[in-house]
Amino acid sequence: MPLFPLLLATIVGSTGCASLMPADDQPPAATQAEVAYLRSEIHRLQARLDASDAELGRVLNDVNSGRSSQAAYVTADQLQAIKAQLDSLQSQLRAVDAARAQDKKDIYDDITKKVAALMAQRAASAPSQTASRSGRQTGIEHVVQPGESLSKIAAAYKVSMKVIMQENNLTNAEVIRVGQKLFIPD
User: Fold this and answer.
1) Is 126 a residue whose pLDDT tops 70?
2) Which of 5, 52, 70, 147 measures 20 to 30 Å from 35, CA to CA?
């Protein structure tokens, strides 16, 4: 029940009147002062009630906003679970990187074998270009192709790089050029 009607009922009930006074009769002066005092108290209490309602509304808003912002906070258990997931992902990433490195090595090795096989096949299918060096040795003359290295050529002909370097007066295995003719001894 609202406060104002309750106070009004209290005022009316506290006067001790058994009957209502006629409208044209004025209450005694003491009663008028009491009524005025009670009215001012009612107004003061109504103002306090309004202020309390406003404060209650503000507090409820704060509580509700606190509940919604509480979702943004992470508990220690949640943080630990996230850390465990990150550790797991990092471990998986390292495994993938290791697998990629191994795949890269396997592909490189496979390509090297295929190139060596192609070179050997080409050398075998090419007309026999038997050459001789000052009557000492016989072998094949090889023309360096793009992408070939001395190690690949040596592997294709199953001859050591050192022998090829000696026979061709090479001082550095890295310094061969496309179109260069190399003597490959038997």
Assistant:
1) no
2) 52
Alpha helices of the chain — where are they, by DSSP H? Answer: 3-14, 29-70, 76-125, 150-157, 161-167
Domain architecture of the chain: domains with CATH: 3-15+27-69 (no CATH), 74-186 (3.10.350.10)
182 forms bridges with which residues in the sheet?
142
62-117 pLDDT, tens per residue? Answer: 888 776 665 566 788 888 888 899 999 999 999 999 999 999 999 989 998 888 88
- Check pLDDT > 70 for residue 18: no
Measure the CA dihedral 151/155/160/162, to 10°. -10
Tokens describing residue 119: 């070179």
Q: What angle do CA 131, 177, 120 make, to 5 degrees?
A: 50
Residue pair 123/157 in contact by the 8 Å Cβ criterion: yes
Contact 159, 123 (CB under 8 A): no
The first and second tokens of residue 107, run together, are: 């592909």
Number of other CB atoms surrounding residue 149 within 10 Å: 15
Residue 120 CA to residue 36 CA, distance in Å, equals 122
